[in-house]
Amino acid sequence: MDLELDAVTVEMGGRALVERLSLDAPEGRIVGLVGPNGSGKSTALRCIYRAVKPTGGAVRLGGRELSGLSLAESARSVAALTQEGGAELDFTVGEVVALGRTPHLRGNRALSPGERELCRSAMRRLDVLHLADRGILTLSGGERQRVLVARALVQEPAVLVLDEPTNHLDIKHQIALLSMLRASELTVVVVLHDLNLAAAVCDRIGVLSAGSLVASGPPRRVLTAELVREVFGVTATVVPHPLTGDVQLLYSLSPPPQRHREPPHDQN
Ligand SMILES: Nc1ncnc2c1ncn2[C@@H]1O[C@H](COP(=O)(O)OP(=O)(O)OP(=O)(O)O)[C@@H](O)[C@H]1O
């Protein structure tokens, strides 16, 4: 299902956190949002999963304004992995994942055998099936993150919204998660801080700076050394990935202060 942000503005306390943001996520595509801390990425995502109501503009899902849909209807269509997490109660992993089916359940209906298999399959895909009986509060940050992605998947959404999903994940699970997104047919909007991962997984990237979209398009067009310098204040060397051709950014640490050099040792 297509998702469209059309001149979305969010004002709070007399300040625009997001200003006239327009961005399309066509069906089945992965759109990345990148930008410095505080540039409005999470706020923009919150408009998509309806935790924040835009003060201007519109979010459209399949051509229909989100604000015109019932909360139940949009909850069936949009799944979100948020920064807030939302797993404070001591449920088991299996129970947390099953909660992803809530928007589809009427009354007190128990999960069908098909839905239970869906939950198991999502846990298997996210490598957390072996944790099914563990309490969610006993998990490591990365294990918990994978459980929450599994919960989002069992919701069978049309649109998946992910706020820094690779947080806490080791490199193997980062690559597994992003590969899974690429293999899925979901429409995905994802906030990523790692520009190289964003270049590898996203069909399009939108760059936010101080609440405004300053660039958008395919990664190789957007992620230039000039943009990275202007938006992030960082010097980067842009090279093609030797195997995939994706844009990759190489960074150098600031040069260390000149150390006092020992005079050459006198051999005599
Ligand atoms: N409820 C709120 N009330 C006031 N200001 C807010 C609120 N939520 C966010 N902000 C401010 O809005 C700006 C954008 O925040 P947001 O969380 O969207 O940024 P972000 O790009 O996701 O940042 P990060 O990369 O640090 O996660 C920040 O300056 C933040 O302090």
UniProtKB/TrEMBL annotation:
UniProt xrefs under Pfam families: ABC_tran (PF00005)
Stretches assigned to the ABC transporter domain: 3-235
GO MF term list: ATP binding
Cross-referenced InterPro entries: AAA+_ATPase (IPR003593), ABC_transporter-like_ATP-bd (IPR003439), ABC_transporter-like_CS (IPR017871), P-loop_NTPase (IPR027417)
Keywords per UniProt: ATP-binding, Nucleotide-binding
Keyword Repeat: no
PANTHER family the UniProt entry points to: ABC TRANSPORTER ATP-BINDING PROTEIN, HEMIN IMPORT ATP-BINDING PROTEIN HMUV
Protein name in UniProt: ABC transporter ATP-binding protein
